[in-house]
Amino acid sequence: MSVERIPAHFYAQSTIDLAKALIGNYLVHFLNGELLVGRITETEAYLGVLDRACHSYGRKQTKRTRILYEDPGHVYTYTMHTHCLLNVVAERSGQPEAVLIRGIEPVCGIEKMESLRGKSAQDKQFANGPGKLTQAMGISMNAYGESFIDGPLYIGYNGQKNGAPVATRRIGIENTGQAKYFPFRFIENK
DNA sequence: GTAACGATTTCCT
DNA sequence: GGAAATCGTTACT
Q1: pLDDT of res. A172
Q2: For residue A68, what are the contacts with CB-CB under 8 A and spacing of at least 6?
Q3: Is the C-beta of residue A124 closer than 7 Å to nucleic acid chain C?
Q4: What is the assigned CATH class of domain A8-187?
Q5: Which UniProt keywords apply (predicted)?
């Protein structure tokens, strides 16, 4: 199976558009000579400065979040409750916005994923969460700061896209004021 | 150096 | 549906 890597300009669009555009495309990880491919089914936009739920709210900058201020197309991984979350830096340099990959469906390298995840790919709970998919794809903090444009981890173009993604309210961020009502979470329209 | 918090997952009731 | 687990990063003394 060959998956065409999406070029750099793809990432240089608004965070919302990027979040929608990612749905239906492939998340690809070249790991130890094996190709792991998952179809992206769920994403979430984090609008940095305006978004209280985001680590870069108010242009806050720390060691961990500085990658958000770099050029779009970078990999931003974040450790949470012993789990690793995967983000795609969007917009443009100096604009700390990113898209969180929240869910995938295994496509290629399934046996390897099952081994990494320790669960059957038949299970609907296999990779339907931010921490689960990073485990299934073998993604860790090692990926922090890499680029989707020329690294072992990248987004692959899927010729046959599905219908328009559905926007929903976000979840899991109850303590972030009004930001939790923003419809910035996108799921595949089935 | 120490304390508090969190973009989650999983298990229990 | 609700609570505990669990640990790196952040913020504060």
Answers
A1: 53
A2: A48, A55, A56, A76, A89, A96, A97, A98
A3: no
A4: alpha beta
A5: DNA damage, DNA repair, Hydrolase
